[in-house]
C-alpha cells in the first residue's frame, strides 16, 4: 500500500514539472523583463548591475540604485596617508546592489558630539548598524537615478516642459560627522532623486586619523579625505552621463562638517579639474557650516599627530619614520586611539597644506577663489543646542551661575587670555542677556543657545555670504525654523543642528525611519516637498525659484504659502534671506546686531586686551611649558627690550610670553598706569611745544635782523615748520607706531579667532613705549572690515583664481 502511494506521488510531481516546463516554454523571459529590476550600465571602468527599487509613495516613481561603486583604488598599505588613485577596470558585470564597507571609525570614542546632529548621537545603536562593516578599502559611492516609470513621472514633468530623456542635474552629498564619523550609506537619495528628477550621489571618504593626519611637511601633507571627495567628483564628471546625469550641472551639498567640506572645495584649485571640460562641480549648497567656523580647519595638526605616534609607539623625531611606522599599524589600532582636541576644535581635520587648501579660507574668500560657483547657504534657528546640553538643570532653564560658567569656559577655550579677558567675558554676557527678563532661567537658556549659534554658525555663514555676493556672484541665504516632533529633543528646543536633513531627503514623505523616528504631519510632508523643490531647482538652474514652481496641492487641497514667496538673491547691502518655516517670508539682515558684535566689536576688544596684557607689567619670565609659547612672536619694531631685574638672567635671550603665577584682577593698576602714562605724554607734548615756540621765536628774531624777500622768509618758515612736524612725528609717533590706532583690529584677527590661542601672535613689550591718550576715551573706534571702504566691485583681478595668477 505504501509503495503504491509513493508511486502515485512521484507521478503527480512529474506531471507538475512537465506542466511548469510547458508554461515556461510558451512564456520566455524577455530582455525588458530581465532589466526591469536589474538595470545594467557600462562605465569607463566596466559594467555595473544595479537594482530598480520602488519608492514607498503613490506619487513617486521608482529609482535605479547602483550601490558600492568604486571610485578610487583601495588606500591600503603604502597608499595609506597618500592621495587616492583611480580604480582599476574590471571584467564582466560588477554587482552594484548592496553597500560596500564604510571607512574605519569608532563611534564609541568621545568624539566632539557638540558638532554632531541629535538624530546621529541619539540613535547610536542604529548608526552602529550602518558602520559595523568597516575596511580601509572604503572608497565607494552610491548612485540614485530616477526612472521614467510611474504616474508621477509624466504628471509633474509635463507641467514644467522638461523631458525625461534629457540629462538630469546631479546632486552629490558630502556626509558630516565631526571629520571622525559617518558614511554616505546612511542617506538614501531615492526620494530626493524621484521627487526632484535629479541624479543623487552619496559617497564614503576617509575620515579621522586615516583621512586627515598631517605631519606638516611632505611626509604626510594631510587632506586625504578632501582629496577623496575630489577624486569622487572626478569619477562622477566622467561617468555620470551613463546614468542619465548631466556632467555640466553638478551640485555639491552637505550639512555640518559636510558643509564645511563643501565650502573648502569651492576654495580649492583641485575642484577646477584636470582634463575635465566643465569643471568638477558648478554649484554648492552649504547647510549649517562654513570654512570660517572654528572647527572647519585644524591649525595644530602636528600636535595631535605626535600625540598619536607616542601612544602607538612610533618615533616622533623623524616624520618620515613616523609615517612609515603608522602605515604598518592596523587601522583598528589607530582608530581606537581616543585623541581629544580642544573644545570647539578638531584633532584631525582639513589643514592648510599650500595645495588642496593653499591659504587660510578667509584670505581665499577675500581673493575671490569661490566666485565661479553659485552658492546657496543657511543656518538653523537653534544650531547651538548641543553646546549647552551639558549645563546642569537644562530642563528647568539655566541658572545664573551656570550661565556665567558657560560663557567663561567659552572665552577661555577660544581666546585663552591669561588675564584681561574679564571685559570680553562681561561684554558677551551683557550682549546675551535679555534685560527685559534677565532673571528667567528659561530665557537665559534660550540666549545661551543663541550665543553658540551666532558664533559658531551664523556669523561665519553671513561673512561667507557677504564675501561671495560682493562681486555679484549668485548667492541665496536661508534660515531654517522648523523641526519634526520626536523624543530625540527637548520640547523647548528650536530647530537644532542637522534638523533640516530629513526634509532635504524627503523622509516625511515615507514616514518615520530608524534614523528619524519623528511623528511627521502633513505640514512636515508639505515643507519637505517645498525644500526639495528649492534644492533641486537650484541644482537645475542656479535659481531656487525655477524651473519648477512651488505646488503641494497633492498634499493639501489648498495652496501653500510658499507659492506666494519669491526667494530673493542675497547681497551684502540688503542681505535678504528666506525664512523657511510654516510661515515663510523674505526678511533682511539675519541677526544683524549679533553678527556685527562678533564681526566688529569683538575684534576691537581682542586688540585692546592684547595691549592691556602687555602694558600691565614689565615682569617677564620664560615659559614654564615650552609648548605654551608655540606660535607667539615678539615685536618687530626694533625697540630694545626693557631691562628688568627678572630678565637679567636670560643672557639677552628673547623673552617669552608673560606668565602670571597668581592671576588676579589688575583693572585698577591698569587704569592708574594708563592715566599716568597719558598724563606724562601730555606733559611731554606741552614741554616740547614750549621748546619749539622758544626756538621758533629766536629764529624769527635772527632772520628779522637780515633782510630777505618775503617769499623766501615764508618759504623758510614753511620748511622749518615741516621739519619740526616731522621731528615731532618721529619722536612721538614712531615709537608707538603699532599702537597708532589701538582700536583698529588687525586684519589677521578673524584668522586668529579660529585658531588655537597658542597660534595668536600677541603684541609684546617691544611694540609698546607710549599709550596714546585716545585710548582713555576709546574715541577712535572704526569699523572692522577686511575690505576698504568704497571697495569697487569692478576691481576683481581675474575671473576666478587670484592666488595662482
Automatic annotation (TrEMBL):
InterPro entries (alphabetical): AB_hydrolase_fold, CarbesteraseB, Carboxylesterase_B_CS, Neuroligin/BSAL, Nlgn
Protein location: Cell membrane; Synapse
Ranges of Polar residues composition bias in the record: 619-632, 702-734
Keywords, alphabetical: Cell adhesion, Cell membrane, Disulfide bond, Glycoprotein, Membrane, Signal, Synapse, Transmembrane, Transmembrane helix
Signal peptide (residue range): 1-32
Single GO BP term: cell adhesion
Residue ranges constituting the Carboxylesterase type B domain according to the UniProt record: 39-598
Record-linked PROSITE patterns: CARBOXYLESTERASE_B_2
Membrane topology: Single-pass type I membrane protein
Family under the similarity heading: Belongs to the type-B carboxylesterase/lipase family.
PANTHER family membership: NEUROLIGIN
Name under which the protein is recorded: Neuroligin 3b
Origin species: Fundulus heteroclitus
